[in-house]
Amino acid sequence: MPTSLHKTRKQISKKRGGEVNALHAKSRDSKRLRMAHARDIRLEKLASARTKKEEPIVDRIEYFHHYLTERDVSKLELSEVQTLIHNFVHQYDEEFDEVKKARRPGRPASTREDLLKRKIDALEDEYEKGFLIPDVFDEDNGKKLLGYEGSWAYLATIAWSKVSKAGKVSKGDFPSKGIM
């Protein structure tokens, strides 16, 4: 995919009749190159931030997608879903325990340990209030989830629901703003 900098450099080289080897520091062309480079950096930062925000949603979808394809089913019962959610919430427990045991006595918690603790606490808190998952209680939606190929656009077609620890199931909305 050509970037702004690449396109701008190509336009300037065509205008100058070949390679762009020497430009005056304050010339219009060098300013165009600097601005194109700054735009590319800005767009790259925005894309990485968006990817980081969307990662928890994609992880949940892939977790349930993997379970459904492994079992070759398109509908799950509440008890099975609650077990899956419990396993998803506590997937970082072993790593957290290892990091905690590796720390010397009397030392403060490492950054990794703090991050894992916050992640586990946030997931447990969300599970208490209502854990957002793709609606796997409906067979049609389960078939849609089985057809998931990894694209973000496909996620909007899948229905979502919230499952609380108490067993209450309610309709949920697509988490376009991220989960955590």
Automatic annotation (TrEMBL):
Q: Where is this region: Disordered?
A: 1-28
Q: Which InterPro entries match?
A: Tma16, Tma16_sf
> Gene3D superfamilies given for it?
Translation machinery-associated protein 16-like
**Coiled coil spans:** none
Q: Give GO cellular component annotations, separated by semicolons.
A: nucleus
Q: Where is the composition biased (Basic residues)?
A: 1-15
A Pfam family the protein falls into: Tma16
Q: Where is the signal peptide?
A: none
The record's PANTHER family line, in alphabetical order, gives: TRANSLATION MACHINERY-ASSOCIATED PROTEIN 16
Which family, according to the similarity comment? Belongs to the TMA16 family.
Q: What is this protein called?
A: Translation machinery-associated protein
Native organism? Cordyceps javanica
Q: What is the lineage of its organism?
A: Eukaryota, Fungi, Dikarya, Ascomycota, Pezizomycotina
